[in-house]
């Protein structure tokens, strides 16, 4: 399954139609008829996202959304409200209650699925940063957030033929304290220093997908890859809307640049970006000094152990698998003995780089010491873990490591032991490492240069 979605709607027909659409996209679907039932289900099952009708038998959709967002344990769950008539006041009410998006019936399946993918990606990325921040706080290394915020830099980029946007700009500036400007498409990536924190891409009403190229370039540029992007389309541009979300837009307006709605969406994106930036900076600066290995620049044991414990706890709470791997370089002592410790250090840094480049952002990679590495992969079952570990072994063995300045080419192989915590258990992280270590010993005894899966924890 790609995620657990709770549908809250008083009409059985609406619930069934939406369930069929989501089930076809491999989502696990839960159904609730009332807001009270939905709150109970959220408390018991912690869904990945909630889709709520504006009108429920006991209270309104915005009221349910506000209750979800007010609960500290649930506040990060994405909430999408669905209403029957596309009205600006209804969208404003939903956004003011904390909704992440608003859809209109009949629901466009293409946009719905793209929106869910986008929301879940953003939630997972932020959750990983928050998890790392929590680990730092447990170690006493996190800093408090700044007590003030400077105005954000917002660039509005119109696509296509010129339009009169001064009234929109004036309305935004009346409400927002931020530095908002209209920027030509060919300048946003080239002439702005510093780059904007938020980019609003305005599709032209008569075009289809004209801003998608700019969106892709913004995400590819090192200067703007972390910018918040609001993509604005019109009702008939459904394919552009869905493509924009899949290409990395943080938010979407499908009804053109309505000022009141844009204000609310910009405020939310600015808050979220500032929060994520703080988490990212905290991870980068705090961990670099105390929690990284100075040679490989990977996390060290001091960071890895408490972080893995939190990963195991979260996997057990969410009832999802967790793969833990212990990797060890084969015959590495020979490298140091024959070619010297400088050559050994070059091999270690090269191995670390290859491993890091082939893991996900949510995965944990750490140097435990010597030539031993720890890898932890959330939401990874035994089949996937064995495939990925075998691929990592091949990546290390397929190309030798060049030693500067002599140009010497040193071959190297890697053995990996794997342990899996299944959704049904709550095994401690220390035992997972011990299981992976035993599997590693078997891989070494069986010839090295391979990955072996230990008994699955039950």
Automatic annotation (TrEMBL):
EC number: 2.7.7.65
Family matches, as InterPro entries: CheY-like_superfamily (IPR011006), Diguanylate_Cyclase (IPR050469), GGDEF_dom (IPR000160), Nucleotide_cyclase (IPR029787), Rev_trsase/Diguanyl_cyclase (IPR043128), Sig_transdc_resp-reg_receiver (IPR001789)
This protein's GO CC annotations: plasma membrane
Domain GGDEF intervals: 320-456
Domain Response regulatory: 4-120
Pfam families: GGDEF, Response_reg
GO biological process terms on file: cell adhesion involved in single-species biofilm formation; negative regulation of bacterial-type flagellum-dependent cell motility; phosphorelay signal transduction system
One GO molecular-function entry: diguanylate cyclase activity
Transmembrane annotation, as ranges: none
Enzymatic reactions: 2 GTP = 3',3'-c-di-GMP + 2 diphosphate
Cited NCBIfam families: GGDEF
Protein name: diguanylate cyclase
Organism, as annotated: Puniceibacterium sediminis
């Amino acid at each position: 399954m790609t995620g657990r979605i709770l549908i809250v709607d008083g009409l059985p027909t609406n619930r069934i139609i939406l369930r069929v659409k989501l089930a076809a996209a491999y989502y696990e679907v839960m159904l609730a008829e009332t807001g009270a039932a939905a709150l109970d289900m959220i408390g018991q099952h912690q869904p990945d996202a909630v889709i709520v009708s504006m009108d429920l038998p006991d209270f309104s959709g915005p009221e349910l959304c506000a209750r979800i967002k007010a609960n500290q344990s649930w506040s990060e769950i994405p909430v999408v409200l669905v209403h029957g008539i596309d009205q600006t006041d209804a969208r404003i009410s939903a956004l003011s209650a904390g909704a992440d998006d608003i859809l209109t019936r009949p629901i466009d399946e293409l946009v719905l699925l793209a929106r869910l993918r986008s929301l879940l990606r953003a939630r997972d990325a932020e959750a990983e940063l928050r998890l790392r921040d929590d680990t730092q706080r447990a170690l006493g290394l996190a800093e408090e957030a700044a007590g003030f915020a400077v105005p954000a830099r917002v660039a509005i980029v119109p696509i296509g033929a010129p339009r009169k946007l001064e009234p929109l700009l004036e309305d935004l500036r009346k409400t927002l304290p931020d530095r908002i400007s209209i920027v030509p498409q060919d300048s946003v990536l080239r002439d702005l220093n510093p780059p904007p924190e938020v980019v609003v891409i305005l599709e032209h009403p008569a075009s289809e997908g004209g801003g998608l190229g700019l969106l892709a370039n913004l995400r590819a540029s090192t200067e703007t890859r972390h910018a918040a992007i609001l993509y604005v389309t019109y009702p008939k541009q459904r394919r552009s809307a869905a493509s924009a979300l899949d290409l990395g837009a943080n938010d979407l307006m499908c009804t053109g640049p309505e000022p009141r709605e844009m204000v609310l969406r910009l405020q939310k994106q600015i808050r979220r970006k500032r929060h994520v930036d703080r988490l990212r900076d905290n991870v980068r600066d705090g961990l670099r000094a105390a929690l990284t290995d100075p040679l490989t620049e990977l996390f060290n044991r001091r960071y890895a152990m408490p972080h893995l414990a939190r990963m195991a706890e979260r996997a057990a709470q969410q009832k999802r698998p967790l793969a833990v791997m212990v990797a060890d370089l084969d015959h590495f002592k020979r490298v140091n003995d024959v070619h010297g410790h400088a050559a050994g250090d070059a091999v270690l840094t090269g191995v670390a780089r290859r491993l890091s480049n082939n893991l996900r952002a949510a995965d944990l990679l750490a140097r435990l010491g010597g030539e031993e590495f720890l890898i932890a992969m959330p939401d990874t079952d035994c089949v996937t873990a064995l495939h990925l570990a075998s691929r990592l072994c091949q990546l290390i063995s397929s190309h030798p490591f060049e030693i500067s300045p002599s140009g010497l080419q040193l071959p190297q192989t890697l053995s990996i032991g794997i342990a899996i915590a299944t959704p049904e258990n709550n095994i401690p992280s220390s035992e997972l490492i011990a299981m992976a270590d035993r599997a590693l010993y078997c891989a070494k005894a069986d010839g090295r240069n391979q990955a072996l899966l230990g008994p699955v924890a039950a």
